[in-house]
Amino acid sequence: MIVFIGPSGAGKSRLGKRVARLLDVPFADTDKTITAEHGPIPQIFREHGEPHFRALERDAVVRGLAGDGILSLGGGAILDADTQRDLADHRVVFLTITPEAVAPRIAGDADRPLVQNGVADWVALNAPRWEIYKRLADATFDTSHRPNDKLAEEVAAWLTT
Known about the structure:
Layout (H helix, E strand, L loop, with lengths): L1 E4 L6 H12 L3 E3 H9 L2 H8 L1 H16 L4 E3 L8 H7 L3 E6 L2 H8 L12 H8 L3 H7 L2 E4 L5 H12 L2
Parallel strand pairs: 1-3, 1-4, 2-3, 4-5
């Protein structure tokens, strides 16, 4: 399994799908799995709180890692110590993005409950996560200003070497 990690808005789902298509492998996304099984993430946060969401996320990670292909994790999935340990057995791609580049991607996005106030929330949320992302990653690619097709080709090339 190849796992994409990184902050919200970095393009894990979009790029993961493109790389999966290039490599002709399945693609899965833990946030999409949670939404399909339990409803919209903002609703889960409102009705049950973040700890409940994180438990659902952990379950989606465990099931996703048991599959093949590419798996995109939600930005906070790496906070779980068991998930961190599990990722040691997989190739991990860390997607980075600058605050300036992420601003238009997250502006007004109701599906991102932890960054509802924009870039300031995003920076505060991700600052403590950055070292974890870096420690878990086998490779890092910045998605700030490069075309997704070119990035997908670079990631696919790295994965096949």
